[in-house]
Amino acid sequence: MQEALQQTGTMSGQNEDMRGDANxxxxxxxxxxxxxxxxxALAGGALAIYGLTRRTWGGAVLALVGGTxxxxxxxxxxxxxxxxxxxxxxxxxxxxxxVPAGRGTKVEKSVTINKSPEELYRFWRNFENLPKFMNHLExxxxxxxxxxxxVAKAPAGSTVEWDAxxxxxxxxxxxxxxxLEGADVDNAGSVRFEPAVGGRGTVVRVTLKYDPPAGKLGAxxxxxxxxxxxxQVEEDLRRFKQVMETGxxxxxxGQPTGRSAGAxx
Length: 265
Known about the structure:
Number of strands: 8
Number of helices: 8
Distance between the termini: 24 Å
Order of helices and strands: EHHHHHEHEEEEEEHH
Oligomer: single chain
């Protein structure tokens, strides 16, 4: 089990972007900044008009390029940026980015689980299952419209809370969520379910990014996630593996919790 757990990225506080933001073409649909979108639309329109007036094969190519730029400007999505992991929309007022670039802490981890992507996706998609293996979560209540309310444990018996929404998903492959305005802790996350090589289970890749506030609440959040948040996510994924493969997760004392993976599906 230990060997199956792999670190697929590194944690940083100031200069890394969450996969859900960097791959915004996949997860938020926007990876081109506002100024660049305007420039693309204007240049694309000019090229398209010029190409159409030429009435030649070369003109047709120019018109196609122009159409691509118009699409880029109107949707804010660039396929090439998506492939390269570039996102010039970060740091703007993009409402789908909970934690702007250059802020917060990012964690990426993965684990291989001997279950199908369909089964793992179905279990995770019911967010009310998450506290079964995420020790820092006290509860998650889903509202049935892609929105949910999260309560996390904090030191001294206190809690931090936030509302979240699923802003992109692909059945059996991807779930991406973000906190909404007014959250105690701005955060965003995504989980991908990828068939393992040789059909040996599924690689579950989790990316989390959070930006705790300043002051006493921020200090509580820092303690909540600990000095090594990556280690906490790694332990959560290890428990997820246990729940899905054996039906129960071991506690810190090594005793099973007795909570079945079949519960709450």
